[in-house]
Amino acid sequence: MPEPATDMVLLKAAGTPPRLLAKALFLAGLLLLACLASLLFGAGDVGPVRALTWLLGGGDDEAHFVISTLRAPRALIGLTVGMALGVSGALLQAVARNPLAEPGLLGVSAGSAFAVALILVMGASAATLRVGVAQIGALVGCLCVLGVARLRGVDGDPIRLVLAGAAFTGLLGALTSLLLLYDQRAADEIRFWVVGSLSGRRLDDLVAIAPGLLVAGVITLLIARPLASLALGERVATGLGHQPKLIRLLVIFSVALLVGSATAVAGPIAFVGLVVPYAARALAGPDIRRTLWLCLLLGPLMVITADIISRLLVAPSEMPLGVLTALCGAPVLVAVVRARRLPSL
Amino acid sequence: MSTRIPFSTIRLSRLVSAGAVSLLLAMVSASPVLARTLDTAYGEVEIEGEPQRVVTLYEGALDVSVAAGITPLAAVATRGGEGVASYLESDVPGIAIVGTARETNLEAVVAQSPDLILASPQLPQEQYAILSRIAPTLVPLTEETTAESWKDEARFFAKGLGKASQIEQRLEELERRAEAIAEHVSAQGSPGASLVRWMPQGPLVMSEQLFSTGLLAAAGFEVTDAGLVKGGRPHSDPLSLENLARIDNDWLFLATLNEEGEAALESARTSPAFSRLSAVENDRVVPVNGQLWTSATGPLAASAILDRIAEVTGAGTGD
Fold first, then answer.
1. Which of B81, B268, B270 sits opposite A184 (nearest CB)?
2. Of A13, A147, B1, B298, which is the most exposed, with the fewest CB atoms less than 10 Å away?
3. Model confidence at B11: pLDDT above 70
4. Number of domains into which chain A is organized
5. Is A184's CB within 8 Å of B246's CB?
6. What's the rounded Cα separation, in Å, for the pair B227 and B230?
7. How far apart are the first and last CA of chain A?
8. What domain range is A84 assigned to?
9. 8 Å CB contact of A200 and B276
10. H helix count then E strand count, chain A
11. Residue A146 has pLDDT above 80, yes or no
12. CATH number, domain at B108?
């Protein structure tokens, strides 16, 4: 296929058909509703009616405190974490060209968990933990995976990269277990961190991860187009003047930033990065430039909805969010695997 | 089911060289204590004489032993620690650690050649089968852990150690001590209290039926877990930060697993939901040692907890 024609095809595909716009608007509406619901529902005594009264300018002190100090930051963090996880999933699946690739596989979550375990063993307490530790752990974990892949000279092959990630995740997991076996107290503290949660996180944490997210966002905008051409094959992308190796490296770097930031704030949250891009492809087809936008809406939609359910299921206690997303995500994964035809990338 | 263990046979078969001397000693010193039969979780166990080489595989049993004046040769590590709980450290210098509450290193137990093993009520049958071949093993028959069950366990272990009257006396002293504090605390109008472990996403509320919450109640507090702890469990699931009002009592006892109680309190204060609790505003939050308050049991632990309660309520250390 001559190059200009390919470019024309790409350009045409990039145009936004009205039906997709309608879907995106619908999702945005749903997300808005979810955010509102996130302010209205909680495990406590401030029910929807009281919350709504306060939102409309009336109301009492308790509602003011619960909504402005507890629920609003939570919704905001859910929004951010959901976007980061959704986008990172789409990026990674596109670059690995495998619908079952999961951001956790790059050693990112395992890296954060190991860093957190290490710092706990060294005497910190889960209550005083700062987000930087998990973020650095995520990046280091990811860089190790990249390093291993380069060392073996397989960094040109995305599938092998994921395999290296899986191996490294296993290794880090084993090291974490070893540390925790050695230190009972740390084991006791970390068991509540390893199931992610949005509760009790501070807005300061959000500020702390903002730079990382910003960098990842800019990279993502820059590489969306080359990544789409990469989907047509290595030779096509090279022919269009892109550098597949560089693209892959940038994608992985931004995935590490996104997942590292999300994990640092909320702990590991399973399956969002896997399920959201899958749903986005079902709605918008395989073009990464479209799925990315939908992931920005679908990710937070899933996280915030799951968070609301996690508050209501076992009130007055709360179920950890990570458990809930895994419960919702697992059936979707099974459905993907059992589907007659895996959605191709 | 009745498991009778021929005490002297085991000793003779297990202890070959070093055993001979200590056996002789044991028989000499054993004479004043009568043989006794204990009703354990795994049937009746008969004990003769006064045990000399005791291994405790349960923090409560270690406490009772030390309180009875018998220093065990080996014990298990406290929850979240590498040695015994810090309140007992100075009483048992150089004690061997033969495992954790969850896992016992059987070889290390054998190496101590014990003549009595005191174990936790949760000791599984398979473990018992092995341990009881090393030495007579006493597993208290505790159906359901309540705030009072530690006393029966203390009496049970004391009987096994041949020190029943000493421990009975200790328990009576503790009761009098608690009553004295309760008199002082009740004068403040039976204040409410809760024991929690703070975590950023919400506290774990400790059951009313724990050893330490039982002591708080005995010391005159109206202890409550606000009905959050489901039957038989030691603590609740993480309580939603929206529902902190349920544990907003006059006093809040904050158990921490690491030593820095004050640091844990400081970090809890960074949570806006925590710092608006009335107990926090009135400065009635007491950081307490989690090893002592949520892991240990026994007369010495009780005494240490009552000391802390007396200290913070201003009831005096009154000995």
1. B81
2. B1
3. no
4. 1
5. no
6. 8
7. 19
8. 20-28+71-336
9. no
10. 15, 0
11. no
12. 3.40.50.1980
What contacts A162, CB < 8 A, 6 or more positions away? A96, A98, A101, A105, A106
pLDDT tens sequence across B195-251: 998 877 788 899 999 999 999 999 999 998 888 888 778 888 888 888 888 888 899
- What is the SS3 assignment for B121? coil
Beta carbons of A70 and B242 less than 8 Å apart: yes
- Write down which residue in B120, B135, B169 finishes a domain: B169
**Domain match, B63 and B11 both:** yes
Q: How many other β-carbons are positioned within 10 Å of the β-carbon of residue B186?
A: 13
Give the B window 168-187 contacts with A, CB below 8 Å: none
B2 belongs to a structural domain:
no
Residue A166, classed as helix, strand or coil, is helix
CATH code of residue A160: 1.10.3470.10
Question: Smallest Cα–Cα separation from B198: which of B287, B81, B87?
Answer: B287
A194 touches chain B (CB under 8 A): no
Q: What's the whole-number mean pLDDT along residues B180-194?
A: 91
- Is the residue at B63 inside a domain? yes
* B77 shares a domain with B135: yes
Overall domain count for chain B = 2
> Which residues 6+ apart lie within 8 Å of B151 measured at CB?
B171
**Chain B contact present for A200, CB below 8 A:** yes
Q: Is the pLDDT of residue A284 over 70?
A: yes
Residue-number span of the structural domain to which B161 is assigned: 7-169
Encoded tokens for A103 = 């951001």
Backbone torsions φ then ψ of B50, nearest 5 degrees: -105, 115
CB contact under 8 A, B199 and A188: no
Q: What's the pLDDT score for residue A4?
A: 46
Q: Is the Cβ of B200 closer than 8 Å to some Cβ of chain A?
A: yes
